[in-house]
Amino acid sequence: MDNSQVREIIASHVSKTRIHSSHEHIGSIDSFGKNTSPWFPVDIEPALLPSATTLLDLLFSPYTTPQLKAMGASYPPVDAFTDDDAFLKAMNILRPIIKSNSGIGVLVCLDRGLKILHGIGLNEALSSANRELLLRLNLSIKDKYSDYFQWFSEVMEKTGTDSLLKPVHPEFFLSDSLKENAGELRYSIPIMRIDSLVGFQHDEKILDFAGVERAAGFAIKNSSNLDEMITWFFGICDTFQVCSLKQLQAYSRPLSVLDCTREEMSKALDTLIAARADGALAKYRDEALIVQNYILRRILEEADFRSLPYQIHTGMTNLSQSNPAQLESMIQQYRNISFVLLHAYPFISEASYLARTNPNVWVDTSWLVLQSPEILQIALKEYIGMVPADRIFSSIDSISLEEYTGGIALTRSILIDVLTEKVESDFLDIEEALYISERILGGNCKQLHRL
């Protein structure tokens, strides 16, 4: 079998393999409602419909906005979302900024997704002197999003997606809109975010429990309330048979979780509550960490008791404190938890090592292709061979359907390249390569979460 035949067989198999994506945030754009970060409306309300959605909504996503603003862009004026001339003026201002960022993974994925779904890529529309091309692309986006759930279904079928996991807050499960197959729920499987229960770090509030308090209907005023909240939280997990937890605390605190007694937590929490009443919270960050450590330990205990998968944000932010190596002792202590290490970059090797040496650790390609397709390629080259094939997940961590589509297309393409190279170098045989592709693209996610 020559090299062209190897690539052809692998490419054919990968392109036909159905997707079970392990981590997506589709809908976290402004047309679904402005977020009061980190509570995006789609993480709280099932089957939420967007308002009129334009190319500008897709461009100014939570991933691209910081990058565009860092290069001098401003959020477009209101009329740019409704008036063609104002839209073209805004895009003309953005043109050189987007061009200077054109190699950034998220824009590469968006460009690819727009081309696949709407027939016009972002770069094509921007480079053309024909303003009608931009208007046609914008109109196509508006038209498709006007019947959003039909559009969602079309995209899932076009991308070969059977299911995707979607992290949501407790309110999501308590909403009257939560019905079987409601809206995007035909494909999206909600998993529980622990973040509002842990308390978001906040410059002024120090710990912000507003989301979980709003959902539960009572406030955390003392240690008994906190214990009650944890019981309430896992009651929801049990009632709705939640198949996984998800944590993002690496944005604002160390990944490692120190031991903490209930007495230590109670004293720290009392200090924080008293300081909040006096408006003097800023100097009590150590106490906030103690309270968080207690909550995280209790969550780990409950997850271990239930043998729940546990997605955890690693790398990418808070760099000195987000190395997944910090999780090693927790991984070894809570053996019934299936730890899914999201992102990991630039700590790909540390994540690989943990998954290689611990049978309760999985690695997930989440967010990598949106950073850079080359980073995803580097990760897959290391994961395939170092990590058991049954413990590698793929996902995009996408914000929009267009990002998702482009990300899936690039992921398939890169996986074809990596597997072809490994077969050609006699590292794998063709049957092994085909098996690995099935596991990475969906088989592992489906098996672990019993989908």
Q: Can you describe this structure?
A:
With 451 residues, the chain is an alpha/beta fold. It folds into 2 domains: 3-30 and 152-257 and 299-448, TIM Barrel (Alpha-Beta Barrel); 53-145. It is 53% helix and 10% strand. It has 20 helices and 10 strands. The chain has an 8-stranded parallel beta sheet, with helices on both faces. Strands 4-5 form a two-stranded antiparallel ribbon. Strand 4 (200-202) and strand 5 form a beta hairpin.
What name does CATH use for the topology of the largest domain? TIM Barrel
Helix-strand category: alpha/beta
Strand content: 5-15%
Please give the domain count.
2
Shape: globular
- Spell the H/E element sequence: HEHHHHHHHEHEHEEHHEHHEHEHEHHEHH
Task: Work out the radius of gyration.
Answer: 22 Å
List keywords for this structure.
TIM Barrel; alpha/beta; eight-stranded parallel beta sheet; single chain; globular; 2 domains; 10 strands; 451 residues; 20 helices; two-stranded antiparallel sheet
